[in-house]
Write a structure and sequence with these properties.
The chain is an alpha/beta fold. It is about 45% helix and about 10% strand.
């Protein structure tokens, strides 16, 4: 009896932008690949924003359902996820740190007055009164807890039908915390997602059982080795953040990175450090795990769309998701031979009929449509789905006839 291939997926972080990119990519893969169910993989590994996507996939939420909840805001009531929730000030952290200020301030002034410390050292002693994060990400835990407790889903790692690992960093030891693995699987999935996405400085560390955790990307960009060490035949990696390369002809209109000021310089620097670390990791994986096929999907380094994006704009989110979706379809068409060879060894095929349909879109146009136009669009989508099924099951000779 033939053993089913063990297929895993590792999803890196990148904030709301990373989630948007990964949803667009996953929607393109869902309709462009046959022989694979993105909700039935052997193992999911998620870091930061990638943890949100990984947890949803492991819970049976399809890429299209994620698009409805995160991009289109057309999901059922209670399922819509708005990134703006993560921009709520961390009032509890402000209050806790502020309560320390009077005593710390009096102590500092007393030490300066009696000459035991300089003003500079006295100011340094006030550091514990500074908040550890600007915004609260408690909404991640609260919302996902409700979503994952719905019928057919679970907020318990141990009750999943597949394996899920969400990686955070233990703040006091700087070691990776593998939520979902033995000894860590009793923590609610929603709480693990919150911890994995707690970017230092932006969000306070997340306290779990008396310990503090922050973003899992502090140790590694993707933590793909978690799946590789557990054993896997095919690993699909999604990485949303790449440094921008504006050297290609026609990109001069964007200007130099430094012209964008401090935010642009910091963004490019962070992207460069994260990506260079990931490149070293990928080279190591190829030599250390020669029996595993690894497919890496990430944005084009010359593409300014994702680099210049404002991910907190609803209209922009729709545009970026569509862009990631179309970019992935284009990549599957142009690099079909290289990717197809790796996928085919594990029973996964590229559906060229679906990729050849130039009319496919991820998100609906924002303009108001008449009932007739909506009906025609629904008919077109139904015909596309029918063609997809025929293209996936028909013999090769008949596929040629259909073309």
């Amino acid at each position: 009896m033939k053993v089913a291939p063990r297929i895993a997926m590792a999803l890196a972080g990148g904030g709301p932008l990373g989630a948007i990119y990964e949803i667009g990519v996953l929607c393109a893969l869902e309709e462009s690949l046959t022989g694979i169910d993105l909700n039935r993989l052997h193992h999911y590994v998620g870091v930061s924003a990638g943890g949100f996507i990984a947890a949803a996939l492991a819970n049976g939420m399809t890429p299209r359902a994620l698009c409805d909840a995160f991009i289109e805001n057309t999901a059922d009531e209670g399922e819509v996820f708005d990134p703006a929730w993560m921009m709520q000030p961390a009032y509890a952290e402000y209050a806790r740190r502020g309560a320390l200020l009077p005593l710390k301030l009096m102590t500092a002034m007393w030490l300066v007055t009696w000459g035991q410390k300089s003003w500079l050292r006295a100011v340094e002693s006030l550091s514990p009164t500074l908040p550890t994060g600007l915004f609260s990400n408690e909404a991640i835990h609260t919302h996902l807890s409700r979503v994952f407790k719905r019928t057919g889903r679970t907020n318990d790692f141990r009750k999943l039908r597949t394996r899920l690992t969400l990686v955070a960093t233990h703040l006091d030891t700087a070691q990776a915390a593998l939520f979902g693995s033995p000894g860590w699987d009793h923590i609610p999935i929603s709480k693990a997602v919150q911890a994995s996405a707690a970017l230092p400085g932006l969000f306070p560390p997340v306290e779990i059982e008396g310990q503090h955790y922050v973003d899992g990307a502090l140790k590694k960009t993707m933590h793909a080795s978690v799946a590789l060490d557990a054993g896997v035949d095919l690993l699909i990696c999604l990485n949303p953040l790449v440094p921008f390369d504006g050297s290609a002809p026609g990109l001069g209109k964007i200007g130099r990175i430094a012209d964008g000021g401090l935010p642009a310089v910091l963004s490019q620097s962070m992207r460069s450090m994260i990506h260079s670390r990931m490149e070293l990791g990928m080279k190591h994986y190829e030599s250390a795990y020669p029996d595993t096929d690894i497919v890496l999907l990430e944005p084009d380094h010359h593409d300014p769309e994702l680099y210049l994006a404002n991910t907190f704009s609803y209209a922009q989110r729709r545009h970026l998701a569509e862009h990631a979706y179309q970019q992935t379809r284009s990549m599957l068409r142009t690099d079909a031979a290289g990717i197809a060879k790796k996928l085919a060894r594990h029973g996964v095929r590229i559906n060229h009929l679906a990729l050849s349909d130039a009319g496919r879109r991820l998100v609906r146009p924002a303009t108001t449509r008449s009932p007739v136009s909506r009906s025609l669009e629904n008919l077109h989508l139904s015909l596309n789905q029918l063609a997809n099924v025929l293209g996936a099951t028909a013999p090769v000779r008949k596929r040629r006839e259909l073309r």
